Amino acid sequence: MRETVLFILLTGVIAIARADDCQPLNVGHGSVVCVCNATYCDSVGRTGLPDPGQFLSYVSSKTGSRLVKSRGQFQKNSTGAALRITLNPSQKYQRIKGFGGAMTDAAAMNILSLSSGAQDQLLRQYFSPDGIEYRFVRVPMASCDFSTRLYTYADTPDDYSLQNFTLTEEDIHMKIPLLQRAQALSAQPLNLFASAWSAPAWLKTNGALIGKGSLKGKPGGKEHKTWAQYYIRFLEEYGKYNLSFWGLTSGNEPTAGEMTNYSFQALGFTPETQRDWIALDLGPELHSSSFPQTRLMILDDNRLLLPHWAQVVLSEVQAARYVHGIGFHWYLNNLAPPDVTLTATHHLYPEYFLFATEACSGWNPLDRGVRLGSWDRAEDYAHDIIQDLNNYVTGWTDWNLALNQDGGPNWVKNFVDSPIIVDPSKDVFYKQPTFYSMAHFSKFLWEGSQRVGVSYSQHTSLEISVYIRPDASAVLIVLNRSEEEMQFEVWDQTLGFLSERAPAHSILTLLWSRR
Question: Is residue 381 domain-resident?
């Protein structure tokens, strides 16, 4: 990556202007998108450590900055800033697993609607060392609302032995090739995890993929065992394409099919029936299969169901022995404070990891669909991620990797937003502000990074999270949702003080070596 170095003598900070900066487009939603095509796309590039005693700063802001890099120097003495942020590395919390998005049917269709060159650019943005280095990809098992049709892999009635189980065109010609390409671009193995929306209609009480319905019979019965075996068959079929899965969830949003007459694919479970199905069917099937190391996450639904859901499932030893983590979604978070849901669950069950498995903007009927350049949505992402991570969450997964300008395709017209929006008519894609929100975390918080303590000299509206990475370097992430620029200093007792500012409506990532 070519760089031009500009020395700003008044502040002592070195600003680095990249030759591959964002090509901005403002369509009036608060900020800009960055326009990319087959031959050009802005990129953060590879992020090495600065020299000892120096720090790197990356800032994105409402005014249009996108991961703008600068370099500064630690000082021995305090700068006198009113706000001092002090690292407390001896206070150790959870370790990070990583960040990612979902390869839905819709995401795959949108990526493949571009030219091969633009496809490669898009995949590089997410997965390559020059991009934001996603480590996780959620893969729906068969169709969901972000498909163009309703299907499962076993639609032949009464096929309890799953003799007719088969992957579909969406898997073989869309999702699988793209996942293989993403893996080839990634410097490390991708962590895939699968979620099912609905069992085949003939296994369900309502005889349909949509609406209110659960599995026929009882846990331990033939319907429940067939549904558990369906998961194993999915893993086997994807394995034929050299794609292995890090994890599974026990089913997308189980309350959707249990408590509401959902308009799209759903399968209802209560915490009690999910517990018993795991204990009697899914857990034993997975344990005795060729995939015993695959991590199983329960819930995969809104966090307001915690800690109750976890208490019901994990208090039963036969179910708990097969479970590794707890997945949750961000919808309705305003009804579910993180301390009484996430932190409370962690303290009850510290051996089970917490992992955010789905989030998107544009789902609210009052603010529906795509908003090109919305900075408010970028701040919503960063706020939620920091809040989650500061309450023991180990990773955060976005929803669709790419959507079209309508926020689809989606067969039930449940249109939402995405960090990347494609326009195949121009063979371009737009990187939304939310893409850069994700970048401020996914690019810098390596797997194994550990959240550590932090204290403040005075109350601040800045939202902050601090980590020590496996190489002993430090990462400090700051969100400023206010209208004012805020000056602060960071005190790392091994190095001294660094002085920085968080522009109004900005996300800031600081990186330095502590060796």
Answer: yes
**Does residue 505 lie within any of the structural domains?**
yes
CATH assignment at residue 503: 2.60.40.1180
Is residue 152 situated within a structural domain? Answer: yes
Where do the DSSP E strands lie in 136-227?
136-141, 191-196
Say yes or no: 350 and 476 in one domain.
Answer: no
Decide if pLDDT at 2 tops 50.
no
Q: Which residues pair with 140 in a beta bridge?
A: 195
Residue 42: both structure tokens together:
């802005």
**Mean pLDDT of all residues in 55-69:** 98
Structural domains counted in the chain: 2
Residue 221's CB is within 10 A of a number of other CB atoms, namely: 14
Answer yes or no: are the C-beta atoms of 62 and 30 closer than 8 Å: yes
What tens digit of pLDDT does each residue of 161-172 get?
A: 999 999 999 999
Q: What is the mean pLDDT of residues 216-236?
A: 98
Active site (catalytic) residues: 253, 358
Residue 92 covered by a domain: no
18 pLDDT tier (thresholds 50, 70, 90): low
Domain residues for 271?
98-442
Average pLDDT over residues 233-247: 98
Q: Residues 455, 402: one domain?
A: no
E strands, 441-485, in order: 450-456, 463-468, 474-480
The answer, yes or no, to whether residue 312 has pLDDT greater than 50, is yes
Residues 471, 355: one domain? Answer: no
Pairing of strands 420-423, 403-404: parallel
Complete DSSP assignment for 257-289? HHHS--SSB--B--HHHHHHHIIIIIHHHHHTS
What are the start-end ranges of the H helices in 137-246? Answer: 169, 176-185, 222-239
